[in-house]
Fold this sequence. Notes:
This protein is α/β, with parallel strands linked by helices. The chain is built from 16 helices and twelve strands. It has a six-stranded parallel beta sheet with strand order 9-8-7-10-11-12, sandwiched between helices. A four-stranded parallel beta sheet has the order 3-4-5-6. A two-stranded parallel sheet has the order 1-2. Strand 3 (94-96), helix 5 and strand 4 form a beta-alpha-beta unit. Helix 1 (2-11) crosses helix 16 (358-373) and helix 4 packs across helix 5 (102-111). The chain is globular and about 60 Å long.
Amino acid sequence: xxxxxxxxxxxxxxxxxxxxxxxxxxxxxxxxxxxxxxxxxxxxxxxxxxxxxxxxxxxxxxxxxxxxxxxxxxxxxxxxxxxxxxxxxxxxxxxxxxxxxxxxxxxxxxxxxxxxxxxxxxxxxxxxxxxxxxxxxxxxxxxxxxxxxxxxxxxxxxxxxxxxxxxxxxxxxxxxxxxxxxxxxxxxxxxxxxxxxxxxxxxxxxxxxxxxxxxxxxxxxxxxxxxxxxxxxxxxxxxxxxxxxxxxxxxxxxxxxxxxxxxxxxxxxxxxxxxxxxxxxxxxxxxxxxxxxxxxxxxxxxxxxxxxxxxxxxxxxxxxxxxxxxxxxxxxxxxxxxxxxxxxxxxxxxxxxxxxxxxxxxxxxxxxxxxxxx
Length: 374
């Protein structure tokens, strides 16, 4: 969202940008303090919890039922709050990225006769966009439009809007990033991230095999984004379990807004299969080991990962229970770290999925629609 906002301001600084987020979301502060956001609102929003691996859990799990009922009320409250915002601000167009927060905002836009545009990052449309698709002015997609159930005449494949700091990595840029991170230029670097909040199964699995990896590769540096709440715990684990030399090369990160720096400096990236992360690493042409979150709604991460693996653009690790697959993960990492030819093959293939100008394309479309509505 902020990448698109930045491009809109570059194209027309006079355009006013209003950001609507969820009440209680700590990451909303990033948008609130962004120079391209002129006004910030937060609303109540309701999320319908679904579990890809268990329909029974959804139907019979009492905490899930209670949360879904609570969030149904939040959805109604959020719609009322959104209606007031839309009526007051009178925007020319609303841009929806397909999250549950977008549902009340976009429906309120429809009620106020304001056009809205949806964007799908994954090949499987989110529940939010499935609900909103009927009245959308335009559908923007990350992947070829034939993968989506939208009318082709108002669907455009734009790619995923990314932070402009994600660029194609060459030797010079990689060396610059390594100097900034104080990493030896000829070292091997592994970067693991399970999303901004971390992924516990990746964190656990990596903590089990880190000592082995660092013993095997004396020039290896490992950086792991574990999530803010996990930072102290994993620092304590590595302090206890690693030798002094290995510990100096094992770096724990709670949260970072400079992912591009760590991934750009890396030889191998371990990542979940979130569409935005994959798009970022495709732009950087990085050799990736993808571990999709198999439990997530509708299996979108599994589908994201499969699309890349089928094109030999990434290594798909069907971890399931990663704790029992530590040796397999260690072997996959060792194999890539020891084989520059294989890494190069993956780098070249994932680059084919790169759309570095998505933010500009989307910004131009939104400006075009806004002009037609004024």
